[in-house]
Design a protein that fits this description.
Radius of gyration: 27 Å
CATH topology of the largest domain: TIM Barrel
Strand order of the largest sheet: 3-4-5-6-8-10-26-27
Helix content: 10-25%
Structural class: alpha/beta
Shape: elongated
CATH class of the largest domain: Alpha Beta
Number of domains: 2
Mean pLDDT: 89
CATH architecture of the largest domain: Alpha-Beta Barrel
Strand content: 25-35%
CATH superfamily of the largest domain: Glycosidases
Number of helices: 11
Distance between the termini: 51 Å
Largest sheet: 8 strands, parallel, barrel
């Protein structure tokens, strides 16, 4: 279909929706009252960004709204939404998961004293790629049923588009949302349909536009799409809150926060747009031993011996450390060059495995160490002694994205296990932040280790390098104060904009409940911090094998549950 044809189709569809001609129940069509609101919206003299407070929002509304950065209920009383996420098989199901949930699930949620659910949606519940914009009636019927159950048990729903047209975003595989304009048009049409269908539904607290957006080029892509989605929704629904998530990252680019904590500025003339973000810090802990990441064993929480570095900035390195010999060589020890810390700003160091332009050759690394030395070159202490036994938390980087690095269980010094790098045609290395140490001005340090080579060209530059870094944010340890410092970066930004903020997801993998890893401690501290700041939140996830309160697939088996977590939530909420 041509671009012009898409535009005509979407415009016609949106006009139909505004008039309430979608086949839905009378109670959920856009009524004359909403049409009046839409008229007022279109005639507004100017729009305000989400950074402007909503001083006009003081009249009683049957819908959740906000004023001065705080959520309010239908009686204009402060409302703290506390709840859980319902995953709804969005990662695996191509149809609405009828039968996955029952009303008993909402009874269980209510019994934990929760009042809100972040309700995951996939576009596939409502349309097919082979038949775009041909809405599936059973998808809406399924959602209607869940809304009715939530209403009966006093639970608000936040509808979250977890899988939009173009693909699931979080892991960087959803570029088609950004690079194919038809997918954005379909997403707008779907949100317009949902907005019209549920415009008068007071059980719905808000609409969460896209889960963890990861753009293909720049932050502006998300800002533009988010604004377009808001404008589209407001043609049919002026009642509900809209939540805009922070940018999660850029495919093949940065996932770091900018000065705005990766939030985008959007305009909503009726001041019902808020910010939302997810909290999984420290990520190596919350996601340790998950199958879809490289994070391995990462210890307990709290842990006063574990550094949490926050934001760092690379400063310099021991570029003159000895390089592996050309050709094919057996395991050989290479002692690194010494670096004297003479700047106040350098406070961190870590070993980095460099392998530039190795081409078809291969280099293995093992038995690494970071040492502190005195002025005569004698070792004072060994700060890190790394026998590489697995690939946990190692990551590969190449300036031109060519080459690969990985854990090799077949090669090692003495015992099997090493890091292998091959195929690089430019600057490349493997790193692991778990081996970062604190360094001090006036002290000397070096990184050394063993290397083994296969067909290493003479032009290659492969070495064990000591990288020195600046700590942009304070160096902390893994405890509640660290969690607070990370949380407050987002909270302070939202407060400065005078808009409400909502933690749409927080949680951690089930293994953290095993072997005294401290998941109960982490969840307890997080709830305390969120409640103290009045931040709305939903825990990820109600039922799944990794992050769930209940385990397995539906229907829910009450005996297959994380009972200590249920007890904690019932007590704290």
């Amino acid at each position: 279909m041509s671009k012009n044809a898409w535009n005509v189709l979407v415009i016609a569809l949106l006009g139909c929706l505004t008039l309430g001609c979608f086949g839905c129940s009378n109670s959920s069509k856009v009524t004359g009252q909403n049409a009046s609101s839409s008229s007022a919206l279109s005639s507004a003299s100017s729009s305000s960004s989400v950074s402007v407070s909503s001083s006009a929002q003081v009249s009683v509304s049957p819908y959740i709204h906000w004023s001065d950065g705080q959520f309010l209920d239908s009686s204009n009383k402060p409302l703290l939404m506390q709840g859980v996420c319902l995953g709804n098989q969005v990662w695996s199901s191509a149809v609405a998961p009828v039968g996955d949930l029952t009303e008993a699930d909402f009874v269980r949620i209510q019994s934990m004293h929760m009042n809100a659910v972040r309700f995951y949606l996939s576009y596939k519940f409502f349309e097919n790629d082979a038949a775009p914009l041909q809405w599936k009636a059973n998808g809406f019927a399924w959602l209607d049923t869940n809304i009715a159950w939530a209403k009966r048990h006093g639970i608000y729903l936040i509808l979250n588009m977890h899988v939009p047209e173009g693909g699931y975003q979080s892991n960087g595989a959803g570029a088609a949302l950004w690079d194919d304009a038809s997918n954005q048009q379909r997403l707008k049409a779907l949100w317009a349909t949902l907005a019209a269908h549920y415009a008068n539904e007071t059980t719905i607290a808000g609409l969460d536009l896209v889960n963890e957006p990861v753009v293909s080029q720049s932050k502006r892509q998300w800002q533009t799409l988010a604004q377009s989605l808001i404008d589209t929704i407001r043609t049919a629904d002026t009642n509900h809150l809209i939540f805009v998530e922070r940018l999660n990252g850029i495919i093949h680019g940065s996932y770091d926060n900018d000065a705005s904590m990766n939030f985008v500025t959007v305009s909503d003339p009726i001041h019902k747009t808020g910010l939302t973000f997810h909290f999984y810090s420290p990520i190596e802990y919350t996601h340790q031993l998950t199958s879809w990441t490289s994070f391995g064993e990462d210890g307990p929480y709290p842990d006063s011996s574990r550094l949490e570095l926050g934001q760092t900035e690379w400063a310099t390195a021991t570029f003159n450390s000895p390089k592996i010999a050309a050709g094919t060589t057996d395991w050989t020890f290479y002692q690194g060059s010494t670096y004297l810390i003479n700047a106040d700003t350098i406070s961190l160091a870590k070993p980095t495995l460099v392998c530039q332009s190795v081409g078809t050759g291969t280099v293995w690394f093992d038995s690494l160490r970071v040492e502190e030395l005195d002025s005569t070159g004698s070792v004072i202490s060994t700060l890190e002694n790394v026998d590489i036994a697995d690939g946990s938390n190692w990551w590969f980087w190449a300036a031109n994205t060519v080459g690969s690095g990985a854990f090799d269980s077949t090669q090692g010094l003495g015992t099997p296990g090493s890091i292998m790098i091959t195929g690089t045609t430019g600057d490349a290395n493997e790193g692991n932040n778990n081996f970062t140490v604190v360094v001090h001005k006036g002290h000397r340090y070096r990184a050394s280790g063993y290397m083994k080579g296969l067909n290493v060209p003479i032009t290659a530059s492969c070495l064990v390098r000591l990288d020195l870094e600046k700590a942009v944010t304070p160096i902390q340890v893994r405890d509640k104060n660290y969690l607070a410092s990370v949380l407050d970066q987002y909270y302070s930004y939202a407060k400065a904009q005078n808009v409400p903020v909502y933690v749409g997801e927080f949680g951690l993998n089930y293994v953290n409940f095993l072997n005294n890893k401290g998941r109960i401690n982490w969840v307890t501290d997080m709830i305390d911090l969120l409640q103290a700041r009045g931040i709305a939140f939903t825990l990820h996830d109600y039922r799944e094998n990794n992050f769930g309160i209940y385990y397995g697939t539906g229907p829910t088996d009450p005996s297959n549950a994380n009972q200590p977590l249920i007890n904690l939530l019932t007590q704290k909420l």
